[in-house]
Amino acid sequence: MPLHRHLSKGRAIARTTGDHASDMFAPLAAIGRGLRHHVGWAVSHWQATPKERRGPTLFLTAALAIGVYLLPHGLLFALIALMASAGWAGRSPRAAPAPPAPDVADVKLGALYAALTPYLCGPEDPNPLYHFEGSHKNAFSAWEFDREGRLSRLELSYPAYFTDTEPAARARIEQVVQGKAGRAREYRFDWDEESNRLRITALAPLPTDIAAQRFVAAPGEIVLGFTDEDGTARTIPVVQSGMTVQQPPVIWRTGPRSSEPHLLALGVTGYGTSSLLRSIALQALPYADLVVVDGAGTGEHACLVNRPGVYTVETSLHGTLAALEWAAGETERRLAALNAARHAGTAPPEDVTRPLWLLLDHPTELSELAQAEGRTDPQDLLELPLRHGRAARVTVVIADDLDARDRITATVRTTTRARVVLGPAGPDEGRAALGAPLDIAPAAHAPVGRGYARIGNGAPVRLQVPATVDPLDDEAPAPLRDAVIALLPHRDSRTEAAAAAPPRPEHPPVVPAADPAHLVDLGKNEPMIRSRPIS
User: Fold this and answer.
1) CB 219 within 8 A of CB 393
2) Mean pLDDT over each residue of the chain, to the nearest integer
3) How many CB atoms lie within 10 A of CB 9?
4) What are phi and psi of 415, to 5 degrees?
């Protein structure tokens, strides 16, 4: 007989023997499963029993065992009952193991791959990278998830025929990715056009608990807010939640050597453009004079009225036109004095070297009013300070709504090279406001003061404006209001003995915490007195 027949016959005999053995030992296997079930039930019941009830439970169990032992044939009946219950409990065969739960990464990445397929597949591509029956592992090369199971980093490839140079095509892909990965976070999209790869990174939230304070910056440097660690190569110490930590700031350098001497801040209503203007005013007050225009007339800057260094705070059209006409004349006077000093080879006078800041909040509101009354547009009076302000030490800061961008004059848009946009702006709005495409998809709901900044020709960076509330707002938190009050100048040093030079410290002065016994009363009990008359 051949060898393979012996082997097949042996396998048949072994299979038959195993089947008979399993049938014969099936009752014992069922009783064994039942006993294991009883032991498991007893252990779990004992662990669930409180400690103070375990003693009585043991006593009752021992009494029951003794009673069974004393009964005639009690042990035999107990053993029969135990075997019967064990056979009943183990009658059902061992349950099949539950199928493993699907991998969360595979589910989410598969959904993202399916969502991108209609935009990245080509009908004439013989070997498409994205197709409806494909797998995400063919297109996604690297990914990471955070502890909450949300996508934090992804690197994918896309076909070469995808129009990655068109902003509209990019915006569609970014919208799909953000919709599948979660709209509650901001994402940075790094398009590598040479290798047809896209890197997506979920950005960590910026700190929102940094209040107004005296920042470590040189005169002429304004801290607009704070950004990511890779957005700047500099950090400054700040007080955050009662502790001093290092945070990366967004620095705007002003003055005669600045290439971006003026700033335009646009934002969605309620996202902190007025707070940004107050923060800039508090930082500029130690070494500059201010002219403030509140075009909306909401009283957001009433805390600056009658403060040393603040010429005026105007809310009406008549006062605004008078203040801006004086600012234009002051710019001409400064230019003439500086040119005369250069020709004579002498030091320029002190009153032309001290910086002058023009802060305008919602000037388009006054422009519409001036147009209705047939008067001069306040924005037209800014042409001279905007074009020659750098040489004359005059800085212009304009804050307005994002919807009012079309009402801002061309002169303002072309001369304000430092840009800030606050609030959840779309791709088109961000590009129009910053003058460059925004490679960050904003979150659907952003905190107050969150936005983006672009200084000159640099790349846009994320921005979180310090919490600079209106100290006259009773609904604002008291610690934030006290922080702003501590930064306001409380006395006019110019009424004292004349100093040899204007106060220009090498480093910003360290302002101690405000003493509750010496807080300044912000109530306006006296008529407003301007520091210097506007002629």
Assistant:
1) no
2) 84
3) 11
4) -100, -10
Give the three-state DSSP class for 263: strand
Task: Report helix, strand or coil for 114.
Answer: helix
- Please report which confidence band the pLDDT of residue 95 belongs to, taking 50, 70 and 90 as the band edges: low
Distance CA 187, CA 177 (A): 9
Sheet holding 461-464, edge to edge: 249-253, 221-226, 461-464, 450-455, 418-422, 263-267, 394-401, 356-361, 289-294, 310-314
Cα–Cα separations (whole angstroms), residue 294 to 325, 472, 474: 16, 15, 20
CA geometry: angle at 491 spanning 487 and 492, to 5°?
115
CA neighbor of 113 nearest in space, from 133, 97, 99, 94:
133
As given in the structure block, the two tokens for residue 109 are 């990445």
Q: How many CB atoms within 10 Å of residue 150?
A: 14
Tell me the one-letter amino acid at 486: A
- Tell me the pLDDT band of 127, cut-offs 50, 70 and 90: confident
**Among candidates 319, 105, 355, 346, which has minimal Cα distance to 219?**
355
What are the backbone dihedrals phi and psi of residue 417, each rounded to the nearest 5 degrees, phi first? -90, -10
Angle between helices 74-89 and 26-48 in degrees, nearest 10: 100
Question: Quick one: pLDDT at residue 81?
Answer: 77
pLDDT of residue 38: 76
SS3 letters across 59-102: HHHHHHHHHHHHCCCHHHHHHHHHHHHHHHHCCCCCCCCCCCCC
Full DSSP string of 121-141: --TT-SS-SS-TT--GGGTEE
